[in-house]
Amino acid sequence: MKHLILLATTGIAAVLHVFFGWPFSVLGAIIAGVWYTERPVLGGMSTLVLSWGGMMAYTAFIAPAETVNMLQTMGSLLGDIPGSLIVVITLLIAAVLGGLGGWIGKKSKPKN
Questions:
Q1: How many CA atoms lie within 13 A of 75 on its CB side?
Q2: Where are the beta strands (DSSP E) in 6-97?
Q3: Residue 15 DSSP class
Q4: Among 3, 60, 97, 112, which residue has the fewest nearby CB atoms (within 10 Å)?
């Protein structure tokens, strides 16, 4: 059941990200926090990391040269850091936002 919840919330987060923008993808993590009975914060983190990571992997697969160019440009703009570090930073931000979303979902769950 945990894998089904993770698949559903990751899909929700990805759809919200694509159609409404990245801030709305946190709603997928909040839903994960509500649906997970054990470790909702970890569920929220996993939801956003898989969603954002999947979209970055898709972009790299579809347009590899352009993705490398974009990552190098972003690295140059952020203090001449390697482009691969941009991916790591992005996934760390996704983990933090997802964890907060999972925590919010856990706290907003009605008490039984």
A1: 15
A2: none
A3: H
A4: 112
Residue 1 is which amino acid?
M
The burial class, CB within 10 Å (0-12 / 13-18 / 19+), for 6 is: middle
Q: How many CA atoms lie within 13 A of 94 on its CB side?
A: 25
Task: Please classify residue 1 by burial: count the beta carbons closer than 10 Å to its beta carbon, then call 0-12 exposed, 13-18 middle and 19+ buried.
Answer: exposed
- Widest CA span of the chain, in angstroms? 52
pTM: 0.90
Tens-digit pLDDT profile for residues 1-57: 788 999 999 999 999 999 999 999 999 999 999 999 899 999 999 999 999 999 999
